[in-house]
Amino acid sequence: MTIVPNFVDRIPSKLEEGIIYISVSVNTAIHLCPCGCKTEIVTPIDPSEWNFTYDGETISFSPSVGVWGAKCKSHYWIKRNKIEWSRTYSNSEIEEVRIQERRENSEYYEEMKGRRQVKNPNWFRRLLKFVGL
């Protein structure tokens, strides 16, 4: 299964299947669950959440996407515009992952609190604007 990136300023109100909408201005990506259940999957782009790479044609996200709150409980990777399905996690495994994610997020933000924040001029946003995206 393929998913195509669409860089947007704002997330559209109606999402199309097979498209991942990426808004660099709000550091968020959103797409419909590739299993077909139509659940809207929001992936915040943040060092403590998801990151992505774009090579000019394809997009990859890390880490994997777990749709733990939906009935389908889909779990997959987005690699070079392809959905690579992972195994389904049990409820206890999902809870373990959630606990670990909360711990890692807490540690990340505690570390950031201790550092002096230097504002990044966000060269990537300027580049996207420059090339007309």
Features:
133 residues; alpha+beta; 3-stranded antiparallel sheet
Task: Explain the overall architecture.
The protein is an alpha+beta fold. Helices cover 24% and strands 29% of the residues. It contains 2 helices and 9 strands; from the N terminus they run E-E-E-E-E-E-E-E-E-H-H. A 4-stranded mixed sheet has the order 1-2-3-4, with no helix packed on it. Strands 7-8-9 form a 3-stranded antiparallel sheet, with no helix packed on it. A hairpin with an 8-residue loop joins strand 7 (65-66) and strand 8. The longest helix has 24 residues, at 91-114. The protein is globular and about 35 Å long. 12% of the residues are buried.
What percentage of the residues does DSSP assign to strands (E)?
25-35%
Q: What's the structural domain tally?
A: 1
Pairing-aware structural class of the strands and helices?
alpha+beta
Strand order of the largest sheet: 1-2-3-4
Strands, total number: 9
How much is the average pLDDT?
86
Instruction: State the end-to-end distance.
Output: 25 Å
How would you classify the quaternary structure? single chain
Order of helices and strands: EEEEEEEEEHH
Measured as a percent range, the helix fraction is 10-25%
Shape: globular
Provide the gyration radius in Å: 16 Å
Show unreliable segments: none
Number of helices: 2
Largest sheet: 4 strands, mixed
